Automatic annotation (TrEMBL):
NCBIfam families: DiMArgaseDdahMtb (NF045659). This is Amidinotransferase. Belongs to the DDAH family. One of its GO terms (biological process) is arginine metabolic process. Signal peptide: none annotated. Keywords: Hydrolase. The lineage of its organism: Bacteria, Bacillati, Actinomycetota, Actinomycetes, Jiangellales. InterPro entries: DDAH-like (IPR033199). The active site is at H166, C260. One of its GO terms (molecular function) is dimethylargininase activity.
């Protein structure tokens, strides 16, 4: 049975969002961003979370940092601790101190990283362990740091397709026992690890992966994901979850989606069983 728990998220308005450089295969500087559309889609995403009963804290956007809307990359947070980000791409480095200052202001103890990591872009908390990606943005040394920071087991996974340069572009944790992922994004060894650890996982197809349908956010019952990922929505519903499709197509121009725009302040405890919660159709 799907499990619901109230979540707390950090988001940053896309006031300065643009594609001014290309640091992933999705970015094309010849295709200008429609900022008004991006803001409207982002507002709809925020409203969706709030309609589901979740808290959203807002990080102030900084001029000159067009990717700051993608708050998931700013840290990994569980309970009152965080491992700050150390971006691989120099154009994003100034985002890291902004995130650290913001989280510190919330009373969170932020550890300064030594190894390169891009926060929840490559770290996913399941309630039992952290799934940790590497291959493009986050180093394997960072897996050791995140394990030491939170004192929980880490399951290392290797990404092999540059389109899926962060773990959160190819895998989503739906609840403490169920994940969805796109197998071709992972090395053969990592596919074996995922198949063994998650025999009931939802496997996404090419069409849904290519619209970053797996860049999704789950509260244990409701799954907020790209509206264009129609087959994945159906599979999620068949598995007993409630898909909440949102259009974040403008953010896709920067290589992101719902999850990229959402930093979760994870509770250290596993989600509680759902009894009575928000209206299942909120946000649709």
């Amino acid at each position: 049975m799907a499990q619901y728990s109230v979540r707390r998220y950090v988001m940053c308005p896309p006031a300065h969002f643009a594609v001014e450089y290309a640091i992933n295969p999705w970015m094309d500087t010849s295709r200008p961003v429609h900022r008004g559309r991006a803001v409207a889609q982002w507002e709809r995403l925020r409203e969706t979370y709030e309609a589901l009963g979740h808290q959203v804290d807002l990080l102030e956007p900084i001029p000159g940092l067009p990717d700051m809307v993608f708050t998931a990359n700013g840290a990994m947070v569980i309970g009152d601790r965080a491992l700050g980000a150390r971006f691989r791409e120099s154009v994003r480095e100034p985002e890291a101190p902004a995130h650290r200052e913001f989280l510190t202001g919330l009373g969170i103890d932020v550890r300064l990283p030594q190894a390169v990591n891009e926060g929840q872009g490559d770290f996913a908390w399941t309630g039992r362990h952290i799934l940790a990606g590497s291959g493009f943005r986050t180093s394997r040394e960072a897996h050791v740091e995140v394990e030491q920071t939170f004192g929980v087991p880490v399951l290392a996974l290797e990404l092999v397709d540059p389109r899926f340069y962060h773990l959160d572009t190819a895998l989503c944790v739906l609840d403490s026992d169920v994940i969805a992922y796109y197998p071709p994004a992972f090395s053969e060894a990592s596919r074996r690890i995922l198949a063994e650890g998650y025999p009931d996982a939802i496997l996404a197809g090419d069409d849904d992966a290519q619209v970053l349908g797996l860049n999704a956010v789950s509260d244990g019952e409701h799954v907020v994901l790209a509206a264009q990922a129609e087959k994945l929505c159906a599979r999620i519903a068949e598995a007993g979850f409630t898909p909440i499709p949102v259009d974040v197509s403008e953010l896709l121009r920067g290589g992101g989606g719902a999850k990229c725009a959402t930093l979760e302040l994870h509770d250290h405890n596993r989600p509680r069983a759902h009894t009575a919660g928000p209206r299942a159709g909120a946000g649709q």
